[in-house]
Amino acid sequence: MRLKELCELRGVSGDEGAVRAFILKELEGLADEVTVDALGSVIAVKRAKEGAKNPKRLMLAAHMDEVGFIVQYVRDDGLLRYEPVGGIDAAVCVSKRVEVGKSALPGVIGAKAIHLQEPAERTKPTTHAMLYIDIGAKEKKDALSKVQPGDYISFASDYVEFGEGLVKAKALDDRAGCAILLELMKGRYDCELICAFTVQEEIGMNGATVAAHRMNPDYALAIETTTANDVPGAGVHEEITALGQGPALSFMDRASIANPPLFSALCELAKAETIPWQLKRGTSGGNDAGAMQRARAGRPVAVISVPCRYIHSPVCVCAKEDIENTLRLCQAMLRNFAQIESRIAKEE
């Protein structure tokens, strides 16, 4: 699984070119058909096994983009004002290393030193308006010789394995899903598999909206990462998910409601295959399933997620076994999709 390489690529929403090029290379020899749509999503198709009866079209989506920033303007003193791209808590940004523009110019996110803050300032929440990016420029002219407004900015964070089977990296949301889809393309199934590596999920599920409308699948699933809040002070219901307990299945979030027969079938399949799994204990957030559910006349959808601590930060943390078990569940679903589809049709 090429997770390290995927996470270390830079691909803020709208600037997914490096990730797209890597995925296109990995798909060579795996897919029966590969296209890149007008927004830049990669759509790979694996036709059903020979002899499959009335195979259904199943779309799995994982987004290539990551949260990051964009240069808003350059100040007279050479410091950069920025806007966040996607949902990023300003509190996680202070003093973090970043890379700016196509040349990956090094920079750091700065803030007013605590020594200079008034007592009242120290009690206020950090906002992006308080922060700036320092690229070491002496003045505006110097900075503009290296960067321009509109340049993308990504967190600079290496992929590191640590502890008991954990990984730390930026962009685990959702390069973990992309890595899983690439593994799934190595098989052939009784359904037609459509793997959509989508763009611009973090700013409104734009890629999935276009891809699902174009491909018109019978069913669709988002393969995602989701919040793990299994940290000190959180009650069980506040954890949302926990690392090491397997993929999380969602019955709803703020973007979609899972198709009940499909959701139930996935839960029962995980049990039957003895794959560790957990119920997502929260309904916040949203993902590509919301866009795919509304495509054309509507599609039955579900979501399978890898738990992730410190999501939307430069230090996302996942358990390798959760990623592997998410892959196992997806493989089991594809092997058994004819039976799952029959059940869905019967119950609806």
Topology:
Blueprint: H1 3-8, H2 17-27, E1 33-36, E2 42-46, E3 57-63, E4 68-74, E5 80-85, E6 97-100, E7 105-110, E8 132-134, H3 140-144, E9 152-155, E10 160-162, E11 166-169, H4 172-184, E12 192-198, H5 206-215, E13 219-227, E14 248-249, H6 260-272, E15 278-279, H7 288-293, E16 301-308, E17 316-319, H8 320-335, H9 337-347
Parallel strand pairs: 3-12, 3-13, 13-16, 14-15
Antiparallel strand pairs: 1-2, 2-12, 4-5, 4-9, 6-7, 6-9, 7-8, 10-11, 11-17, 14-16
Helix pairs in contact: 4-8, 6-9
Describe this structure as you would to a colleague:
It is a single chain. The chain is of the alpha+beta class. It has two domains: 3-66 and 170-347, Zn peptidases (Aminopeptidase, 3-Layer(aba) Sandwich), CATH 3.40.630.10; 68-155, Peptidase M42, domain 2 (Elongation Factor Tu (Ef-tu), domain 3), CATH 2.40.30. The protein contains nine helices and 17 strands. It has helices at 3-8, 17-27, 140-144, 172-184, 206-215, 260-272, 288-293, 320-335, 337-347; strands at residues 33-36, 42-46, 57-63, 68-74, 80-85, 97-100, 105-110, 132-134, 152-155, 160-162, 166-169, 192-198, 219-227, 248-249, 278-279, 301-308, 316-319. The strands form three sheets. The protein has an eight-stranded mixed sheet with strand order 1-2-12-3-13-16-14-15, sandwiched between helices. It has a six-stranded antiparallel sheet with strand order 5-4-9-6-7-8. A three-stranded antiparallel sheet has the order 10-11-17. Helix 4 packs across helix 8. It is globular, with a radius of gyration of 21 Å. The two termini are 37 Å apart. The model has no long low-confidence stretch (mean pLDDT 95).
